[in-house]
Amino acid sequence: MSTQILMPALSPTMTEGKLARWLKKVGDDVTAGEVIAEIETDKATMEVEAVDEGKLAKILVEEGTEGVAVNTPIAELAGDGEEPASAKPSGNGAAPAETAEPEKTAPAEPKPAAEARDATPAAKPATPKPAPQIPVASAPEKDWGPTKPIAVREALRDAMALEMRADPDVFLMGEEVAQYQGAYKVSQGLLEEFGERRVIDTPITEHGFSGLAIGAAMNGLKPILEFMTFNFAMQAMDQIINSAAKTRYMSGGQMGCPIVFRGPNGAASRVAAQHSQCYASWYAHVPGLKVVAPWSSADAKGLLRAAIRDPNPVVFLENEILYGQSFECPIADDFVLPIGRAKVEREGGDVTLVAFSAMVGVAMKAAEALAGQGIEAEVINLRSLRPLDTAAIVESVKKTSRVVSLEEGWPFAGIGAEISMQVIENCFDWLDAPPMRVSGADVPLPYAANLEKLALPQPDWVVDAVKKIV
Amino acid sequence: MAKAVEVGKRGTGRQSRAEPPDPQKGETEKQQLLKAFGDMLLIRRFEEKAGQLYGMGLIGGFCHLYIGQEAVVVGIQMGLTEGDEIVTSYRDHGHMLATGMEPRGVMAELTGRRDGYSRGKGGSMHMFSREKNFFGGHGIVGAQVPIGTGIAFANRYRGNDRVCVTYFGEGASNQGQVYESFNLAALMRLPVVYVIENNRYGMGTSVDRASASKDLSRNGEAWGIPGKQVDGMDVLAVRQAADAAIAYCRAGNGPFLLEVKTYRYRGHSMSDPGKYRTREEIQKVRTEHDCIEQARHRLTELGVEEAELKRIDDGIKKTVQDAADFAQSSPEPEADELWTDVLAEAPVGA
Lengths: 470, 350
Hints:
The structure holds two protein chains of two kinds.
Chain A: E1 2-6, E2 16-22, E3 29-30, E4 35-40, E5 45-49, E6 54-59, E7 65-69, E8 73-78, H1 94-100, H2 113-117, E9 147-151, H3 152-166, E10 170-174, H4 190-194, E11 199-201, H5 206-218, E12 222-226, H6 237-245, H7 247-250, E13 260-264, H8 280-284, E14 290-292, H9 297-309, E15 314-318, E16 326-330, E17 343-346, E18 351-355, H10 359-372, E19 377-381, E20 384-386, H11 390-400, E21 403-406, H12 415-427, E22 436-438, H13 449-455, H14 459-469
Parallel strand pairs in A: 10-11, 10-12, 12-13, 13-15, 14-15, 18-19, 18-21, 21-22
Antiparallel strand pairs in A: 1-8, 2-4, 2-7, 3-6, 4-5, 6-8, 9-16, 14-20, 17-19
Helix pairs in contact in A: 3-9, 5-6, 10-14, 11-12
Chain B: H1 29-55, H2 70-77, E1 85-88, H3 93-98, H4 103-110, E2 134-137, H5 144-158, E3 164-169, H6 176-188, E4 192-198, E5 201-202, E6 205-206, H7 207-210, E7 227-231, H8 235-250, E8 256-261, H9 279-289, H10 291-301, H11 306-329
Parallel strand pairs in B: 1-2, 1-3, 3-4, 4-8, 7-8
Antiparallel strand pairs in B: 5-6
């Protein structure tokens, strides 16, 4: 019983190589693990080890031969007579030969815009992406009954307290969250109520404690991880993306990571470039994460409760400027808001303003100013960035035929770019003007008071953008 | 290969409470060694077969073989009990087999097929088993160390007595997040056994060229984490060290650091030309210190017949061949599988 030795693939990209040298000759005994030949690839000279034992019976490819394709038989090994037949490699393995064939892709011919929109499946990947999750127009928001004004800061604290009372697996961890009562006083009173087992101060070690919280989540707990600000979460970016967001997929659905990463995002006031950055488009880019950016107290409370209950990693982008602002908030014990649903904060028929987080306030001021000039703006508070409530945007644009996106972050590859593309893909024919975006200036945020003001979107920027298209 | 090096007591002196329990645990040395021999040989044969399938183009991408290091994971596994958790790096096939994961499912994941542990979506470096408390399979060097620390955190939070064994290589031991984890684990007294598998080379860079620390078992000293070096080619020595480390953690004393001195015979991954060390160096370890050959030799001394060992080997070869056949016949994932498992379904009302 003889076994064929095949030209091995020695790297992920190797398709052929040169059989540089035989270290064994016909008749030699070969043991498993012994080097029998040297092969040159485009990258290196590699040694080939025998996998089976036996006597080298025949050399099929002479040394010095170039361009030997992977899986070509290069020699034959005579077995010791009791080697099971099944140890033989399955001949010229059909599977690798098939998969090695580079897939022919259809030539990407440019198409007229109208045709491209209903491109044939042949021009798409083998499996078309499933239809968008929320293709239908949003149902009206549930009426939660009586409200009272509370600050965003308290709304966040109340959300955490309610969920911690309801579920003993929920705990809060972060820098200064316990004894100091929160760097921005968001966790005020939680240590007193829940004790140090569940409200945990960490050292300043974002990479380490993020990985720790992710491990705890994989093991079934539901951590709320506070970053003092999201600027410091960059230290933990690998853990958030590679460990939290991807593990469910890489494990075929076995491993969950129910965790909330929360804290203030974006510019505060006069703290300059390293402490003033909007990470919305960074996180919204990543499949496996949900990304939420509340504006009002009701957003903060309802969405944080949903985020804590969600079985997926949720990035919860707060805003320091908003912490002290008060808004009406439902008082119902079971108040919660669904992730993935936007809210129309102000109705209007002339133009759609799409904003999130503190920029909703800017959009509302701009809408007020526009109303004074006879232009009725509809303001959409996105609340969630991933999943994005495309249906709500589309529904509004079909009414107004004009759209302006608004964000504090940088323009290039920002959320505004995505909103614009969604509008183009989903309601191009309803547009009467190109989509516009208002964003922070494309520079690191300056310290000087006047320069900082020039870098962050103001209501009059929005008014100016609207007047270009109305 | 250095013999087990006893590192003197350091740090808190708490170490003295962690004397190993009776290593025999009612078993004879022969019984222990026979089991270890079979477990190590399964990993060896599995990895040889994986290398073969890689050469045939049936396994793609990166594939890091565990050949040479089998005694590490087998010895430590022998000290664990039901419920204890394990997390490791991308050189993970041996760890999975040692926890009792099915060779068929592991091999089918290597070939990217439907019946793989991750249904073909993780590959060699990213496999998991909730059932066996195997938490991966992590592709980023060092990332599993804070994760293992967090798994241990969950144990302490729940007040159970489970221990999480967190494996990493001597290459990863220079990552900042490893030291962040040491600090957190010591501060919170978490039940985590850190195991540095020192196989002497982080890809092509020898430990001497990568680490200013010469005794890696002392790397936790600044945080009062006790450590010990152990000969990773002697499976019962590994087991004994593991017993002590695990008992220390289980008793609530906080983390323990084991540096297990081992060696990998194959390249860092399949595409490693291996020019950073000599063939003679590998051959010397292989002939003089191989963990399986040492176990075989000792078993023969203990009166086990060669024929018995051959019978074990034959059984393992059949198991591995069956896994290889299964991994080639299992179909590729359905195209729809591309879109599943990105997010879990959120509960109603959230």
